[in-house]
Each structure stands twice: as C-alpha cells, then as structure tokens.
Amino acid sequence: MQGFWLPLGMAAIFGAFTGLLFRLSDKPGHERPFMFPLLGVVAGIMAFFIHQALTWIANAPNWLLPALVVLLIWLWLGRSNLRFRRSKE
C-alpha cells in the first residue's frame, strides 16, 4: 500500500510546488492566486493516475511522472490560459 500512497503524495506536493512556481513567475493581477497551487495539486494527482495507467498498460518509465505533472500544469496554467485574469472594466 505504501507503493501507492507515497508516490501519490509526492506527485501532489510536486504539483503544488510547480503551481506555486507558476504563480511566482507570472505577472501580478490575477483574481485568485491561491488557485495556482491548488490546480497544481489536482494536476499532480491526475498525472499520478495517468502514469499508473500507462505503467500498467505499456510499462512506462518512472521519469515520466514528473514530466506529466509539469506538462499538465503548463497546459492548465500556461500563458495561453486566460481564465484567471482580471477582467478589464
């Protein structure tokens, strides 16, 4: 059971850390800055389950998990996503 919870927790923490880095590297002016680490945690958990499925199906390597976490956070919080920008009134 430890082989499941420990990597899941580590992926979630790494996702929160990467989301925080996205928050710190982004320009100020977002409505909800707390959403960056929160979406990072969700991305870490989703990347863990995607990695588990890929491991069971295609024997994916372990280095793929951090790459999936960063990729999901980049897709959700990257420059092309304007969902959390302040509306100009």
TrEMBL record:
It comes from the Bacteria. The chain crosses the membrane at residues 6-22, 34-54, 60-78. Keywords: Membrane, Transmembrane, Transmembrane helix. The keyword Transmembrane helix applies. The keyword Transmembrane applies. This is Integral membrane protein. It comes from Litchfieldella qijiaojingensis.
